[in-house]
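Supplementary Methods. Inverse-folding protocol.

Structures were first reduced to a discrete structure-token string of length 78. This string, shown here, constituted the complete conditioning input.
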């Protein structure tokens, strides 16, 4: 993802490097598989859930003024 805003590029790279276990999207796919099949809506839903989770972590770091999360710099530290 390219942007003319340097900070946006830094944040995007940070998010891509800090991939977690991806449990939430996996649960969406498993649920869809058990209930009629995986569609493009499943992919959108899985992505939205992961983005919402990431946003809550960022919000938490900002509110707590945290500069570290799980041993690494938080986005708030940027």
């Amino acid at each position: 993802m390219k942007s003319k805003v340097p900070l946006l590029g830094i944040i995007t790279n940070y998010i891509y490097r800090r991939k977690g276990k991806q449990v939430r999207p996996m649960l969406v796919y498993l649920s869809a598989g058990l209930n009629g099949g995986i569609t493009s809506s499943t992919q959108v839903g899985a992505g939205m859930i992961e983005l919402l989770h990431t946003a809550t972590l960022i919000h938490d770091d900002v509110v707590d003024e945290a500069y570290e999360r799980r041993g690494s710099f938080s986005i708030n530290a940027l």
